[in-house]
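Predict the 3D structure for this chain.
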Amino acid sequence: MDSARDLLVALARRYAFSDLGALTSDAEVAEVCEFGHRLLSLDAEDFAAAARVVPADLRRRARACHMPQTPREQPRGALESLRPAYGLLLEVIAARWHRRELSPMIAAVHIASEYLPLLAFEPYLGHAGDPARWPEGLSATGSRFGVIGDRECDHTKAEQSATNRTLRVSIEPGEGWRAYFDRQHSQVAGALAVCVASCRNPCTAMDWIKPDARSDLQAAARTALAFAETPLVRLRHAAPVGHGFGVPSPEEVLEAWERSRAALAKHPIGTAALEDDGFPLPGLASLFSAAAGAEIRPATLLRGVSEHIVQLLRRG
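Done. Predicted structure below.
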């Protein structure tokens, strides 16, 4: 038995890619570990930068979760569809749960909550919130979308600023494009949900959505807004990635999720969270699927990276 190799294999199977990369003397293994660490860390800016030593299938699937770094970059990755990215989010959440890394797990849940409105809008937009492809109806006559300072609009000042920026960011240079995604795109997601689900003074911004489809989108958007306010998502503010210093225990996470499920069940689409779907947080995958209008299951990207590294370690 090669005890050193066995240790490295064990690290690979635990998705401990950063530790394994630091310990290995094999340059190829180290490069694949770097790729795996980016996936586990949800470093979506760099998913497309995988080295050629990473199998083509894994690179292709990671690129589907990649956030384009310029307005014209092709393919569009997560701006084309968020469904692959949500599959990866579920896989990361499950991996962090099993490793008892609860702070980064809650951070991943928080990311999922921020972009859930765009997942709900995707079937109606035909894309996942690509600023280069917004429908012209958002700026139709009578629309307040992106109008800064309009007191009749229910958007916050930050949302008004973000929606104003999103309508013109596709003609900005790459630096401005990246800054927008770092700071404002998630606010646009929430603003869209407000437009269709809770605006007290509706304008013409959502008139491009066919009337017979609007009620379904409204239900999905309301569920997305409700998820962002659940006890589970609010745990982020008690973790080091939030504003405090405490780390939630597994029992606290499960208790918060149970209270979240009860709150979500008040919404027709939110009842999907009550399903026992086998996910570590039962019903979370079903909730994302219901909001998306399509089945979303945990990806197998991390597992694929792990299996490939094990093969590399055992070669020869």
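Residues 102-125 form the longest helix (24 residues).
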